[in-house]
Design brief:
Layout lengths: L2 H13 L11 H14 L3 H8 L3 H16 L2 H4 L21 E11 L7 H4 L7 E8 L5 E9 L4 H10 L11 E3 L10 E2 L21 H26 L11 H21 L34 H19 L5
Parallel strand pairs: 1-4, 4-5
Antiparallel strand pairs: 1-2, 2-3
Helix pairs in contact: 2-4, 8-10
Length: 325
């Protein structure tokens, strides 16, 4: 982040995050140390030598800033906003009522030997399965860490939508998700058995069916959650490698990384992490929405399948008629 962004972050943490100065360390210094540890995955003993502070002081101040950032979750997580009928973004304009995209990502963690089997993913890594939900401008709406790496994405999603303070999806709205999730009310998945990933549409290949065209457009929009995770991990090295912290602390670190990601993208005109990625590469509900009907389960239905089929045919026919993609 640039100097202006850092100054605003310090002000926000002191005024709304209730971060206080100590007798011998300024707010700016402890925030810099906190950001340095997240961005470079630096051990406390390395930071101790760099800034000539006691290791115990660095550890204590790290957790103080961590708690201050977590207090800002209701402010820094983005609010849901559906795609409108007049949307001009070519990637999203077909998905009226869409709130964004969601997916799971694996983050390496340090766990006890007895817990390793539960955290071992299909690729053999010891990880936690984190659900992330983002807006079309690549900012997080909701994040749910804490599930073991062996847990299926669909199970994590079911937990998120049934929690009291979990992911809230108003009736009539939905998120884009990949084929690992159920295509049901509130969650629009691609067609299985059809071309889908962006690299499959290169070299001049054109969609031959409504299902292929739908999958191509779906992939272009849903790819934003992949980019969101990619930028997040490019920015914070502590999320790329197995943490030195125990798993419970690592869970608490994931959320502030996502919150700071949102803050940086909101305050800076250009996110420097964007240049590292190619094109392919928990929020509380608002009080005024208490009377809105939310989706609390994800099950396949004929009505939702018909909605996807109609959308696919409309998209394909419009494209074949020569209208802009």
């Amino acid at each position: 982040m640039d100097r202006r962004c850092f100054t605003k972050l310090c002000h926000l943490l002191t005024t709304e995050g209730r971060l206080e100065t100590s007798k011998n360390i300024s707010v700016e210094e402890i925030i810099v140390s906190f950001l340095h540890i997240l961005a470079h995955h630096t051990k406390n003993r390395v930071v101790k030598r760099q800034i000539a502070r006691l290791g115990e002081t660095i550890s204590r101040q790290f957790h103080v800033v961590l708690r201050a950032v977590l207090r800002l979750h209701s402010k820094l997580f983005k609010k849901q906003k559906p795609i409108q009928d007049d949307c001009a973004d070519n990637r999203w304009r077909w998905f009226k009522g869409c709130l964004g995209a969601l997916d799971g990502t694996h983050i390496k963690v340090h766990v006890k030997l007895t817990d390793i089997p539960r955290y071992r993913s299909r690729k053999g890594n010891i990880v936690t399965n984190v659900l992330g939900v983002c807006t079309p401008n690549i900012q997080f709406i909701y994040v749910l860490p804490g599930w073991e790496g062996s847990t299926a994405d669909g199970r994590v999603l079911r937990d998120a939508i049934t929690r009291r303070d979990g992911l809230k999806i108003p009736q009539g709205c939905y998120y884009l998700c990949d084929a690992g999730y159920t295509n049901g009310e509130g969650f629009l998945a691609p067609y299985r058995g059809q071309r889908y990933h962006l690299n499959e549409w290169r070299h001049g290949h054109q969609p031959a069916t409504p299902q292929e065209y739908f999958n191509m457009k779906h992939s272009q929009a849903r790819n934003y959650i992949e980019r969101c995770f990619g930028i997040l991990k490019a920015r914070w090295a502590i999320l790329r490698e197995k943490s030195y912290y125990l798993v419970k602390t690592q869970y608490r670190i994931i959320l502030p990384c996502c919150l700071l990601h949102n803050f940086i993208r909101s305050e800076m005109d250009f996110d420097p992490m964007e240049e590292y990625l190619s094109e392919d590469s928990s929020a509380e509900p608002c009080g005024e929405d208490d009377d809105i009907g939310y989706i609390t389960h994800c099950e396949p239905s004929n009505a939702w399948t018909e909605f996807r089929d109609k959308l696919a045919n409309d998209m394909f026919n419009t494209w074949r008629a020569g209208n802009p993609n």
